[in-house]
């Protein structure tokens, strides 16, 4: 193999198109989301739009446009967009594990024929690699196996299971399905080898054969040509079936001939074949005798036109999608529209209002949006304008004034209010922005929008009480793969109660001085779980910073919220000597891997405080040197939004908070290292303290299960050696067989 | 990816996913077209996904994985096996290796912990274990140094949105892009490969 140093991984694209239901390569810790990034939840489809984001997938933007333009989805359309059953999972059958239920039913049915050759698996996929265009496709679809199963049952009934006709029919049908798979790996006996697909034709029947069998064989031959990729011949053969009026299959002949041409056009890339298919489908639709196939032919014709003239088709679909229609038709149009847009990577914005709006909204083209809105455009254009307008733009006040006139019942309200507040804040009209945010928070706009307005209001907080009031947020989704990829199965709202989003967590962890931690831990207005989180993190923080008064107060509060900490914290609180208190704190932390000097966002740590987390979310690690860099060479963290302004902090308080954070990062960057250092220092001077051997054992354990740094191994070894040299006969030494 | 220079880069593409949950198995091939220039070296990636419950029959999974080995230069299996799944994973890989043509390299993706001292991968019948230095869960990390496990010293995997500051030099570089590949992103990957 030629050795290439650069391999591009084209994996994710497949998952975005067809997301798996569960986690992809876990284990991953579920991440809380407080709003939707690409895929809003089911309430959105019902018109609770919340703050519409230009990052939403286009299918969602079509839905948003419908509501914003005053044409809400009908009940049928909402229903059509509802969650679908999870993707097909196949139960193992007596046949091979990987057959689908339709293939399995066919394999089962054919065993009713005595002497049928053994067949346990049918490969239904083919892949092509033509001019570098790699693709795989499902060659034989479920209905093919259903039809075969049904027909075999009928033929057994007519001819008998053991008849020669039935045996011959089955031989022919096996030849048909032998064309389903393409090139394959012949697996057994090993080693595998590539076997190229060869066309498998049902044998011609001798003259005088049973007429029904002969008609079936004509059809089987056409089907074999179809699955074997001989599309022109298949089309001719199906047309011949259509002309054989005595055949039970003749009604399907013309329709299947058109399908063969479509397959040639898509798999084979023959545009002429698609044009021929368009003509054939048009003829079927014009023929009343083909009524049975009209609905299906209409769908195929739409598909073919999309392939041949995608822009025209998108204009049609854009027009159709802006008006109410039956649910299934809406869903099909939406699927076709977004598929064509993705494939063509452009849309006819000049010819279609819908395409124009989506293009403008996604591109953030404020001037075009303003122009369209001023020209009498609907609320959708005001939304597009406000989302992208520069707050310094002369048009901004005009847009804000228009947004202010929109009532809370309007589907546009949340979006225009959110961005209007943003404009006012940027223009330093903070009182007005606050007033608007307060109004929005009292409107019933759904949880995601409430979270959005809470974030805006928190950033405008005038005092700490206001900060605490708007800090708790209710998660709306849990994701386990990429944090910004909501999936339908994860729209369920995790039952965790309110928790912290990034803004309040970053404010606590890097800006707020300890005195605010004490106040927050005692604030009745905060949910109990969050108070407990702040109290225990605040206690760790105070202990590390050696602030005994605040540490004792926070220890008392923590014990009330986290019963498993009560005993350790009681000892700590009772100790007056600073050195002893320092060791008491380290000992308590070693026994409780969930303790850390930071509050966590989202669901927080998923394991109890006194238990070890299997995914090593134990204690803490401050990375002074951010090793994660983005594509553009910018540290990932600096790409995130800044901490909220916290205008209620004085300059001195701000400096105090930042100094405390820096001190923590400097003094105790790696928890196991810090805890081992404290333990070893105490152990050297207090060899008889009965807690020391256990603490040394716990140190070594922390270096194994905690997050580590370059010096951790050194600390691990020191603790191990002191334990084994100082307390060789202790149970703790016995339990400590290695250092890490 | 018409912008790709086949003399400079290859493509590792998801070719098949085999997922299971509580004994129920789903195996499906990639159905999204992949447009690459002629002569591009292709590596098929087979993703194994446990969604809960015991893993299925190893022989059947190996056979499914082998389906991806058509018309490619190498086969890579992507599975973050839990401790309880390691013996089963080894079984799958051994069966797969035994069944594949001898000249076709079999590789795996690897958690960094597998490469930094976890010895369970010793003796796996693979030519390369690619440590993936992105989307690392708690307890997984990378400090910029080289990997202890010899098997992990040929390649590294990074993501365009989560690059480590540096990786061991001279390695084959797998660049994962969570967004569609563009020419600009491709050029960035080429620059990165030159730098590293």
Calculate the terminal CA-CA distance of chain A, rounded to whole Å: 40 Å
What is the distance, rounded to the nearest whole angstrom, between the alpha carbons of the first and last residues of chain B?
23 Å
Number of strands of chain A: 10
Report low-confidence residues of chain B grouped into runs of 5 or more. Answer: none
Tally of DSSP helical segments of chain A: 34
Helix content of chain B: 10-25%
Explain this structure to me?
The complex is a heterodimer of chains A (740) and B (196). With 740 residues, chain A is mainly α. Among the domains of chain A are: 101-321, no CATH class; 502-735, no CATH class. Chain A has a two-stranded antiparallel ribbon with strand order 2-8. In chain A, a hairpin with a 2-residue loop joins β3 and β4. In chain A, α20 (430-442) packs antiparallel against α21 (447-459) and α25 (528-544) runs antiparallel to α26. The longest helix of chain A is centred in the N-terminal third of the chain and has 18 residues, at 142-159. Chain A is flat, with a radius of gyration of 34 Å. In chain A, 45% of the residues are buried. With 196 residues, chain B is an alpha/beta fold. Chain B folds into 2 domains: 1-104, no CATH class; 132-196, no CATH class. Chain B contains 4 helices and 10 strands; from the N terminus they run ββββαβαβαββββα. Chain B has helices at 58-66, 86-99, 112-115, 183-195, and strands spanning 9-21, 24-29, 34-35, 42-50, 74-78, 106-110, 128-131, 155-159, 163-164, 172-176. Chain B has a 6-stranded mixed beta sheet. In chain B, α1 packs across α2 (86-99). The model of chain B has no long low-confidence stretch (mean pLDDT 85). Chains A and B meet through β1, α1, β3, β4 and β10 of A and β1, β2, β3, β4 and α1 of B.
């Amino acid at each position: 193999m030629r050795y290439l140093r650069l391999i591009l991984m084209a994996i994710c694209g497949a998952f975005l198109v067809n997301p798996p239901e569960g986690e992809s390569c876990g284990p991953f810790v579920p991440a809380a989301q407080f709003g939707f990034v690409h895929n809003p939840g089911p309430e959105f489809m019902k018109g609770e739009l919340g703050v519409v984001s230009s990052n939403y997938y286009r299918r969602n933007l079509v839905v948003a446009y419908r509501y914003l333009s005053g044409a809400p989805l009908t009940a049928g359309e909402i229903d059509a967009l509802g969650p679908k059953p999870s993707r097909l999972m196949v139960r193992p059958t007596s046949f091979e594990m990987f057959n689908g239920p339709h293939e399995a039913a066919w394999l089962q049915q054919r065993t009713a024929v005595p002497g049928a050759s053994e067949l346990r698996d049918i490969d239904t996929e083919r892949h092509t690699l033509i001019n570098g265009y790699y693709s795989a496709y499902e060659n034989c679809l479920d209905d093919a196996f259903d039809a075969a199963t049904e027909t075999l049952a009928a033929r057994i009934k007519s001819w008998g299971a053991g008849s020669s006709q039935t045996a011959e029919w089955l031989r022919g049908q096996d030849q048909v399905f032998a064309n389903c798979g393409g090139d394959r790996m012949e697996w057994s006996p090993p080693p595998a080898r590539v076997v190229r697909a060869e066309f498998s034709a049902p044998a011609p029947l001798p003259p005088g054969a049973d007429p029904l069998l002969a008609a079936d064989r004509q059809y089987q031959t056409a089907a074999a040509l179809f699955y074997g990729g001989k599309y022109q011949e298949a089309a001719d053969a199906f047309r011949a079936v259509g002309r054989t009026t005595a055949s039970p299959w003749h009604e399907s002949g013309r329709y299947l001939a058109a399908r063969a041409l479509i397959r040639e056009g898509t798999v084979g890339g023959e545009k002429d074949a698609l044009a021929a298919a368009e003509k054939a489908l048009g003829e079927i639709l014009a023929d009343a005798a083909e009524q049975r196939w009209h609905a299906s032919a209409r769908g195929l014709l739409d598909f073919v036109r999309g392939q041949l003239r995608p822009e025209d088709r998108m204009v049609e679909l854009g027009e159709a999608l802006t008006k109410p229609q039956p649910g299934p038709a809406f869903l099909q149009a939406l699927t076709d529209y977004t598929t064509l847009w993705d494939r063509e990577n452009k849309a006819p914005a000049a010819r279609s209002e819908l395409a124009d709006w989506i293009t403008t909204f996604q591109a953030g083209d404020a001037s075009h949006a303003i122009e369209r809105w001023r020209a009498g455009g609907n609320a959708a254009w005001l939304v597009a304008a406000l989302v992208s307008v520069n707050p310094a733009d002369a048009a901004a006040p005009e847009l804000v004034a228009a947004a202010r006139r929109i009532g809370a019942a309007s589907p546009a309200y949340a979006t225009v209010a959110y961005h209007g507040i943003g404009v006012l804040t940027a223009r330093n009209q903070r009182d007005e922005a606050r007033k608007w945010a307060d109004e929005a928070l009292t409107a019933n706009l759904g949880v995601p929008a409430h979270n959005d307005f809470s974030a805006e209001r928190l950033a405008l907080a005038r005092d700490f009480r206001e900060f605490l009031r708007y800090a708790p947020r209710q998660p709306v989704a849990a994701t386990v793969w990429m944090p910004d990829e909501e999936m339908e199965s994860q729209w369920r709202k995790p039952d965790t109660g309110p928790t912290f989003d990034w803004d309040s967590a970053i404010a606590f962890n890097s800006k707020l001085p300890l005195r605010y931690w004490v106040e927050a831990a005692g604030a009745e207005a905060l949910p109990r779980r969050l108070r407990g989180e702040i109290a225990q993190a605040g206690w760790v923080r105070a202990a590390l910073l050696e602030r005994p008064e605040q540490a004792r107060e926070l220890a008392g509060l923590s014990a009330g919220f986290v019963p498993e900490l009560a005993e350790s914290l009681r000892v700590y609180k009772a100790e007056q000597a600073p050195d002893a208190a320092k060791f008491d704190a380290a000992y308590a932390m070693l026994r409780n891997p969930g303790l850390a000097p930071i509050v966590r966002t989202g669901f927080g740590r998923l394991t109890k405080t006194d238990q070890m987390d299997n995914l090593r979310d134990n204690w803490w690690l401050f990375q002074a040197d951010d090793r994660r860099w983005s594509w553009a060479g910018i540290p990932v963290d600096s790409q995130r939004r800044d901490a909220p302004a916290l205008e209620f902090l004085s300059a001195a308080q701000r400096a105090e908070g930042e100094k405390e954070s820096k001190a923590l990062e400097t003094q105790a960057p790696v928890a196991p290292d810090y805890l081992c250092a404290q333990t070893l220092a105490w152990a050297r001077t207090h060899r008889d303290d009965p807690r020391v051997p256990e603490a040394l054992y716990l140190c070594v354990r922390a270096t194994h299960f905690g997050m580590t740094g370059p010096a951790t191994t050194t600390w691990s070894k020191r603790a191990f050696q002191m334990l084994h040299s100082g307390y060789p006969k202790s149970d703790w030494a016995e339990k400590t067989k290695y250092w890490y | 990816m018409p912008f790709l220079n086949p003399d400079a880069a290859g493509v590792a593409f998801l070719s098949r996913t085999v997922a299971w949950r509580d004994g129920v198995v789903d195996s499906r091939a990639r159905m999204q077209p992949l447009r690459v220039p002629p002569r591009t070296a292709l590596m098929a990636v087979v993703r194994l996904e446990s969604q809960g419950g015991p893993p299925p029959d190893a022989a059947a999974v190996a056979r499914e994985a082998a389906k991806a080995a058509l018309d490619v230069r190498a086969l890579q299996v992507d599975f973050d096996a839990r401790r309880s799944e390691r013996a089963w994973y080894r079984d799958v890989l051994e069966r797969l290796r035994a069944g594949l043509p001898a000249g076709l390299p079999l590789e795996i993706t690897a958690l960094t912990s597998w490469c930094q001292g976890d010895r369970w991968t010793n003796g796996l019948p693979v030519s390369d274990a690619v440590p993936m230095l992105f989307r690392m869960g708690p307890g997984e990390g990378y400090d910029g140094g080289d990997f202890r496990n010899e098997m992990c010293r040929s390649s590294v995997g990074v993501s365009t949105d989560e690059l480590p500051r540096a990786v061991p030099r001279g390695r084959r570089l797998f660049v994962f892009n969570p967004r569609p590949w563009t020419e600009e992103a491709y050029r960035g990957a080429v620059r990165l490969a030159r730098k590293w």
